[in-house]
């Protein structure tokens, strides 16, 4: 391209043709409206929020952040959110693996996947309302507990940590499971057969073949599940104790914005929320790099 | 379990159902130590099912498998100690060539030094010393094939199973690897069961060929026997007897005479003496001759180097594949005939 | 696929199915509670309500102005589906068919709104929309909902377009079809199944999208799911059965469209988008 001939040619060829040679023609421009939209309504608000978070209502440019980390009512939300999101995600991922390994052998998977997609589709608000009834002191679950004789009085399962925990399992487990299943079914079954032919028992096959091949997918599954659980909002308000145990970080951000009308502070909390998520995801992806990443297919990939 | 010192592998009435479908109907077969047996048949004949049953990847629905006096069909695949080369090689993509080959030995918990030595030998055997540290994704298809073979044989299994191992390679590489597989088999002498749909591959590699059709054994024999004397018309068709002419057979001395249109051919009776019959002739055996009994008109002909091969029509429209040393062209009238020993006559 | 018949393997398999069964049982019981309660006259401390009635649906319809809410929901969902198709499909076509400088950056730009949870980017987005005066109106809600759905459509459509042989388009051009005619006669029929699947998924997701709508909606621009949230939030003000009647209306709406969508897409696609097919 930089040769003299190239220069000569580019001197004569119309601009349109030269751009087309670099892949910029009418078809490429079709991407522009969507890109402009995302820049305008995702990137710009994010940058705007970041800048706004450094323009507090009062005090220096770091005042919002200083206030957040000085006020226990605010900074403890990080710990409370992690205390919900991490155990739930670990549980969902750990339970998903053996179940997905089993379900992949099923011929009629579709019925199960359809049932599991229902809570994801219904969303957290509906699940929260359902669990308020179901887990409540007069709900069916407590009736079963009383009937069996597990406990003499109804077990308190709502308006506390466990209510939110259960709602995150109900919506989070299907999400985690379906992701895990799609990664597991992407692994060529003949690899496991080859392992068996070479004398590897079920446990060895899992450790030596399935787990290393599944690991990159599991990390991504964990990240996506964690990020979802970390941003829990409606069920923390409806099913939890929004002023106590389940005062998660999104509640703090929401209250700053829509109850105190302090958009600057709200933006700062949103940025902290994003930062914690990025930190955890980055740590996990770093961990993944220590392992193999590559095609999970046969030799040719 | 994993010793080469077995005398024979016996399949007794080995059967496998898939729901209503019978994939394998009572296969009986004995494989001797060191033998190279090819399971040959068209796709869907049950040959891959048979191999998977042998491997332990599919449970049998009836029958049994014996290694000498030990019954093995109830063992899981990892307990049988067989080697297997998969159609898509099934190399572990996250392990280097060396790790792939050493996998079986590691599972047997052999000492490190022994593993290293045996893997080195196997690498040398398949000539992949230079590729030892690469990942499977970084080497060519032919090299992946060699790794798959090395991985299967390094544990010195009593039996090696190969599932159409050459079907993913191009024609030139296929010939090369065919010679390679034969060389390794001659060197190590472990019994091998080789599944293929390619009769050339089976003929050139195997000591014995088992022809399967619809889940049943149709014929077992040496390559020579199968080539020269298929026992059934369908086996003959599969082995390259492209001319299968429906006719009536009449006993004549040691042979039979069959009526082909107006002509009369003399042939060898395989399983019929009189009555409705099929005359089977290879295209290369049906040649123009001055006193040939069959009058036909050439429809198409192509030069294949040395000889011409073509398609001719008889007056009644019967199509015949033939060979000719002299140039022939569409429209030529020919008289075709075949050596009576090369005309096989089967019951229809 | 190796199946084992040993005792340990059977116990393991049984344990797995017990867990799945327990989960599904609780899930169905939770949904059943809502449905049963919505038809209950009085349900206090018994297995089943004293008697059944349908009057809560009439009262929920009036109390929560469900007609207005449903109209708003339909308007929002319709506009989001249409606009995300119009913005997303051409962009996916360009991404699938052209290599251009900065393509990776564009891909990252498309992935980000799907990876960042809505509540995180929703707060700054709502702030900007309030400054611009769009928040509180139906257009604010539509714009906010488009942020994840446009990338979603692009991601689903890219592999779908890639698997259509570009030579089909080339052939159409060789036979003299202009760009517009090629688009109408060749591309649209080929892309229709993919577009249908993508837009149905957008539809289901938008009905259930709580966070973005919640952060940007005003009193007159609430969708069903946000109205349901406020009703549950203010529980005690109204009869629980009335709230559950509304919840059932919401469930029926969502699941109806989910059923329609599942005729065209695989359930796992709702979660995995197009990741698996992407390579």
From TrEMBL, chain A:
Residues covered by the ABC transmembrane type-1 domain: 78-284
SUPFAM superfamilies according to UniProt: MetI-like
Cell compartment(s), UniProt: Cell membrane
Keyword tags: Cell membrane, Membrane, Transmembrane, Transmembrane helix, Transport
GO cellular component: plasma membrane
Keyword Cytoplasm: no
Keyword Membrane: yes
Membrane-spanning segments: 26-47, 82-101, 113-135, 161-184, 209-230, 265-287
UniProt membrane topology term: Multi-pass membrane protein
Listed InterPro entries: MetI-like, MetI-like_sf
Gene3D superfamilies: MetI-like (1.10.3720.10)
Domain of life, per lineage: Bacteria
Predominant localisation class: membrane
Any one GO BP annotation for this protein: transmembrane transport
Family as reported in the entry's similarity comment: Belongs to the binding-protein-dependent transport system permease family. CysTW subfamily.
Database matches in PANTHER family: INNER MEMBRANE ABC TRANSPORTER PERMEASE PROTEIN YDCU-RELATED (PTHR42929:SF1), INNER MEMBRANE ABC TRANSPORTER PERMEASE PROTEIN YDCU-RELATED-RELATED (PTHR42929)
Protein name: Sugar ABC transporter permease
Automatic annotation (TrEMBL), chain B:
Keyword Transport: yes
Domain ABC transporter: 9-239
Alphabetized GO MF terms: ABC-type transporter activity; ATP binding; ATP hydrolysis activity
InterPro entries associated with the record: AAA+_ATPase, ABC_SmlMolc_Importer, ABC_transporter-like_ATP-bd, ABC_transporter-like_CS, Mo/tungstate-bd_C_term_dom, P-loop_NTPase, Transp-assoc_OB_typ2
Entry keywords, A to Z: ATP-binding, Nucleotide-binding, Transport
GO terms for cellular component: ATP-binding cassette (ABC) transporter complex
SMART domains: AAA
Pfam family, one: TOBE_2
PANTHER family in the record: SPERMIDINE/PUTRESCINE IMPORT ATP-BINDING PROTEIN POTA, SPERMIDINE_PUTRESCINE IMPORT ATP-BINDING PROTEIN POTA
Protein family per UniProt: Belongs to the ABC transporter superfamily.
Name of the protein in its database record: ABC transporter ATP-binding protein
Species of the source: Limobrevibacterium gyesilva
UniProtKB/TrEMBL annotation, chain C:
Topology with respect to the bilayer: Multi-pass membrane protein
Bilayer-crossing regions: 12-40, 69-93, 105-126, 138-161, 182-208, 214-233, 245-265
Family that this chain belongs to: Belongs to the binding-protein-dependent transport system permease family.
This protein's name: ABC transporter permease subunit
Family annotation (CDD domains): TM_PBP2
UniProt KW Cell membrane keyword: yes
Any GO BP: transmembrane transport
Compartments, record wording: Cell inner membrane; Cell membrane
Domain ABC transmembrane type-1, first and last residues per copy: 70-261
Keywords, ordered alphabetically: Cell inner membrane, Cell membrane, Membrane, Transmembrane, Transmembrane helix, Transport
Main localization (coarse): membrane
Cellular compartments per GO CC: plasma membrane
InterPro entries: MetI-like (IPR000515), MetI-like_sf (IPR035906)
């Amino acid at each position: 391209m930089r040769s003299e001939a190239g220069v000569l040619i580019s001197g004569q060829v119309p601009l349109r043709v030269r751009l087309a040679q670099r892949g910029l023609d009418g078809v490429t421009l079709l991407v522009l409206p969507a890109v402009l939209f995302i820049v305008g309504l995702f990137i710009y608000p994010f940058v705007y929020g970041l800048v706004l978070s450094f323009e507090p209502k009062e005090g220096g440019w770091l005042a919002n952040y200083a206030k957040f980390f000085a006020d226990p009512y605010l900074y403890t939300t990080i710990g409370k959110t992690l205390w919900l999101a991490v155990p739930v995600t670990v549980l969902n991922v750990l339970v998903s693996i053996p179940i997905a390994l089993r379900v992949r052998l099923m011929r009629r998977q579709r019925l199960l996947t359809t049932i599991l997609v229902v809570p994801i589709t219904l969303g957290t608000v509906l699940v929260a309302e359902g669990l308020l009834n179901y887990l409540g002191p007069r709900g069916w679950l407590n009736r079963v507990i009383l009937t069996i004789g597990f406990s003499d009085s109804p077990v308190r399962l709502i308006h506390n940590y466990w209510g939110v925990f259960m709602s995150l399992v109900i919506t989070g487990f299907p999400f985690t499971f379906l992701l895990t299943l799609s990664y597991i079914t992407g692994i060529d079954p003949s690899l496991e057969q080859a392992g068996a032919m070479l004398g590897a028992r079920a446990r060895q096959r899992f450790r030596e073949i399935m787990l290393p091949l599944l690991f990159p997918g599991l990390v991504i599954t964990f990240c996506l599940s964690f990020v979802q659980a970390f941003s829990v909002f409606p069920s923390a308000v409806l099913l939890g104790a929004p002023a106590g145990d389940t005062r998660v970080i999104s509640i703090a951000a929401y209250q700053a914005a829509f109850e105190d009308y302090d958009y600057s502070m709200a933006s700062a909390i949103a940025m902290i929320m994003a930062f914690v998520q990025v930190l955890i995801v980055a740590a996990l992806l770093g961990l993944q790099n220590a392992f193999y990443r590559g095609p999970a297919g046969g030799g040719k990939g | 379990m994993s010793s080469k010192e077995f005398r024979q592998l016996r399949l007794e009435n080995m059967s496998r159902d898939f729901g209503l479908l019978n994939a394998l109907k009572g296969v009986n077969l004995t494989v001797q130590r060191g033998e190279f047996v090819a399971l040959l048949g068209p796709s869907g004949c049950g040959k891959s099912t048979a191999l998977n049953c042998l491997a332990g990847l599919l449970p049998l629905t009836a029958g049994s498998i014996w290694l000498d006096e030990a019954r093995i069909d109830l063992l899981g695949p990892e307990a049988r100690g067989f080697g297997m080369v998969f159609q898509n090689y099934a190399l572990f993509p996250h392990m280097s060539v060396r790790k792939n080959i050493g996998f079986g030995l590691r599972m047997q918990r052999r000492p490190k030094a022994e593993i290293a030595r045996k893997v080195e030998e196997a690498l040398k055997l398949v000539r992949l010393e230079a590729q030892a540290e690469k990942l499977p994704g970084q080497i060519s298809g032919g090299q992946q094939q060699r790794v798959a073979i090395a991985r299967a044989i390094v544990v010195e299994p009593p039996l090696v199973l190969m599932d159409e191992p050459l079907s993913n390679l191009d024609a030139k590489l296929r010939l090369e690897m065919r010679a390679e597989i034969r060389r390794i088999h001659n060197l190590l002498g472990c019994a091998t069961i080789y599944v293929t749909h390619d009769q050339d591959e089976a003929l050139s590699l195997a000591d014995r060929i088992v022809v399967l059709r619809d889940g049943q054994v149709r014929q077992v024999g040496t390559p020579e026997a199968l080539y020269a004397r298929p026992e059934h018309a369908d086996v003959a068709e599969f082995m390259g007897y492209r001319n299968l002419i429906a006719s009536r057979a009449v006993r004549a001395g040691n042979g039979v005479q069959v009526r082909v249109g107006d002509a009369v051919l003399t042939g060898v009776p395989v399983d019929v003496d009189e009555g409705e019959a099929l005359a089977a002739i290879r295209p290369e055996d049906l040649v123009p001759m001055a006193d040939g009994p069959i009058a036909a008109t050439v429809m198409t002909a192509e030069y294949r180097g040395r000889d011409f091969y073509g398609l001719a029509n008889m007056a009644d429209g019967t199509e015949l594949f033939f060979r000719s040393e002299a140039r022939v062209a569409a429209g030529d009238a020919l008289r075709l005939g075949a050596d009576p020993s090369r005309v096989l006559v089967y019951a229809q | 696929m190796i199946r084992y018949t040993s005792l340990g393997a059977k116990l393991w398999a049984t344990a797995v199915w017990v867990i799945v069964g327990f989960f599904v049982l609780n899930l169905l019981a939770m949904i059943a509670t809502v449905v049963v309660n919505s038809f209950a006259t009085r349900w206090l401390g018994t297995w089943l309500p004293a008697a059944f009635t349908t009057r809560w649906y009439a009262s929920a319809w009036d109390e929560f102005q469900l007609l207005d809410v449903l109209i708003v929901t339909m308007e929002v969902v319709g506009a989001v589906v249409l606009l995300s198709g119009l913005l997303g499909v051409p962009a996916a076509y360009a991404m699938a068919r052209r290599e251009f400088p900065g393509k990776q950056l564009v891909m990252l730009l498309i992935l980000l709104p799907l990876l960042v949870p809505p509540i995180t980017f929703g707060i700054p987005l709502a702030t900007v929309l309030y400054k611009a005066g769009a928040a509180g109106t139906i257009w604010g809600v539509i714009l906010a909902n488009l942020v994840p759905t446009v990338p979603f459509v692009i991601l689903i459509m890219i592999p779908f377009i890639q698997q259509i042989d570009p030579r089909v388009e080339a052939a159409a051009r060789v036979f003299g079809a202009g760009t517009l005619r090629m688009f109408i006669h060749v591309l649209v029929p080929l892309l229709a199944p993919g577009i249908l699947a993508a837009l149905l998924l957008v539809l289901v997701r938008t009905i259930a999208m709580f966070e973005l709508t919640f952060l940007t909606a005003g009193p007159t621009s609430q969708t069903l799911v946000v109205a349901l949230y406020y009703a549950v939030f203010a529980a005690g003000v109204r009869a629980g059965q009335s709230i559950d009647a509304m919840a059932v209306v919401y469930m029926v709406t969502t699941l109806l469209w989910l059923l329609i969508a599942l005729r065209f897409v695989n359930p796992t696609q709702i979660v995995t988008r197009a990741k698996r097919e992407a390579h």
